[in-house]
Automatic annotation (TrEMBL):
InterPro entries (UniProt xref): AsnASE_II, Asp/glu_Ase-like_sf, Asparaginase/glutaminase-like, Asparaginase/glutaminase_AS2, Asparaginase_C, L-asparaginase_C, L-asparaginase_N, L-asparaginase_N_sf
Species, as recorded: Pelomonas parva
The protein's name: Asparaginase
Signal peptide bounds: none
Keyword terms, alphabetized: Hydrolase
Keyword Ubl conjugation: no
Keyword tRNA-binding among UniProt keywords: no
Pfam families listed in its UniProt record: Asparaginase, Asparaginase_C
Lineage, broadest ranks: Bacteria, Pseudomonadati, Pseudomonadota, Betaproteobacteria, Burkholderiales
Residue ranges occupied by any Asparaginase/glutaminase C-terminal domain in the UniProt entry: 211-302
C-alpha cells in the first residue's frame, strides 16, 4: 500500500480561467480530488490523508513537525510500502531536506508537486502524482526523493532552478536517482541514505524553534543587516556568499562579531551549484548545501545543543 499525504500547493491550485497558469490560488483542492484526476490509479491499494492545506511559500515549522510525525507513523505500518507527499514547489526542496535529515527512512518518501494549477489547459500535476506513486512502489526504493517532470532527485541535491517551466527542478551535480518512463522507474543513480536524527530532536522545538536567518553577499554588502539580526535575537546566520562562499570585508567582520557573541554562522554560496571549501581561517563551511538547506542544518544543530 502507498499512502498519499496532501499539504496543498499549486498541484491543488485553481484559477478562474484554464488559460491562466500564474494567476491562480494554491491549495484549493483536497488530496482526494488530486487522486480523482488520475483515473489510472483507480483500484490501486492507496490511502490519502490531508495533513495541511497551504501555499508552500507559507510553509512553517509547525507544519513540518506535523508532516514528519505523519510520515513516520505511516511508514511504521507494516502494510505501507511508501509515502507520497503532495507539496508546493516554492519550499519543496526545504521540506524534502528536512524529512531526509530527521527521518532518513528505509522506505521511500516521494515528494511531488506541479508548476501549473489543476485547472490549467495541460496540468502537470496528474502525471507527476502518477509518477510519484510508481516511484514509491518501485522495488528497493528508499529514502526521501522528489519526483517531477519524469525525473527523480534526491533530497540533498534537488533545487528549484526555474520560476515557470514544468521541469523547474534540477539535481545540482547532475546525479539523478531515476527516471520515470511510461510508468516504469529506471534507476540511473542510487537511492539516498542517511542517518536519521529522529523526531526527538524536533520535539525540543516545542519551546521555540531557533531563529536562523540568511544574509547575502553582494556588491556593496556591509554589516548592518547582521547588526539588525543581532538586535532581533538571532541564534544562527547562514551567509550566502559569492563564488566559493566569499564575503565582503565589512560583512565578514560583522559575521565574526556575531560569532563572538555566541551566534552560530555557516558560510554557503549564492551560486546554483558547487561546494564551499572549508579552508583554514575562514568561517565554517556548509559544504555543498544551498543556503536554505544550510539553514535547516543549522536549525537542527542548534536544537541538539
Amino acid at each position: 500500500m502507498i499512502v498519499i499525504l496532501g499539504t496543498g500547493g499549486t498541484i491543488a491550485g485553481t484559477a478562474q480561467s484554464a488559460s491562466d497558469g500564474v494567476g491562480y490560488t494554491a491549495a484549493q483542492l483536497g488530496v482526494e480530488d488530486l487522486l480523482a484526476a488520475v483515473p489510472t490509479l483507480a483500484g490501486r491499494p492507496l490511502e490519502a490523508h490531508q495533513v495541511a492545506q497551504l501555499d508552500s511559500k507559507d510553509m512553517g515549522f509547525a507544519t513540518w513537525q506535523r508532516l514528519a510525525s505523519a510520515v513516520q507513523a505511516e511508514l511504521a505500518r507494516p502494510e505501507v510500502g511508501g509515502v507520497v507527499v503532495t507539496h508546493g514547489t516554492d519550499t519543496l526542496e526545504e521540506t524534502a531536506y528536512f524529512l531526509h535529515r530527521v527521518l532518513a527512512p528505509a522506505k521511500p518518501v516521494v515528494l511531488t508537486a506541479a508548476m501549473r494549477p489543476a485547472t490549467a489547459l495541460a496540468p502537470d500535476g496528474p502525471q507527476n502524482l502518477f509518477d510519484a506513486v510508481q516511484v514509491a512502489a518501485a522495488p528497493d526504493a528508499a529514502g526521501v526523493v522528489v519526483a517531477l517532470a519524469g525525473r527523480v532527485h534526491d533530497a540533498v541535491q534537488v533545487r528549484k532552478t526555474h520560476s515557470y517551466r514544468v521541469d523547474a527542478f534540477e539535481s545540482t551535480d547532475g546525479a539523478l536517482v531515476a527516471r520515470v518512463e511510461e510508468g516504469a522507474v529506471r534507476l540511473v543513480g542510487r537511492w539516498p541514505v542517511g542517518e536519521a536524527l529522529g523526531l526527538g530532536r524536533i520535539a525540543r522545538a516545542a519551546q521555540g524553534w531557533p531563529r536562523v536567518d540568511i544574509v547575502f553577499n553582494h556588491a556593496g554588502a556591509d554589516g548592518r543587516i547582521v547588526q539588525a539580526l543581532l538586535t532581533a535575537g538571532v541564534d544562527g546566520i547562514v551567509a550566502a556568499g559569492t563564488g566559493n562562499g566569499t564575503l565582503s570585508i565589512a560583512l565578514e567582520s560583522a559575521l565574526r562579531g556575531a560569532e563572538a557573541r555566541g551566534v552560530r554562522v555557516l558560510r554557503s554560496t549564492r551560486c546554483d551549484a558547487g561546494p564551499v571549501m572549508n579552508l583554514p581561517g575562514l568561517l565554517p563551511s556548509a559544504g555543498a548545501l544551498s543556503p536554505v538547506k544550510a539553514r535547516i542544518e543549522l536549525i537542527l544543530a542548534l536544537l541538539a545543543d
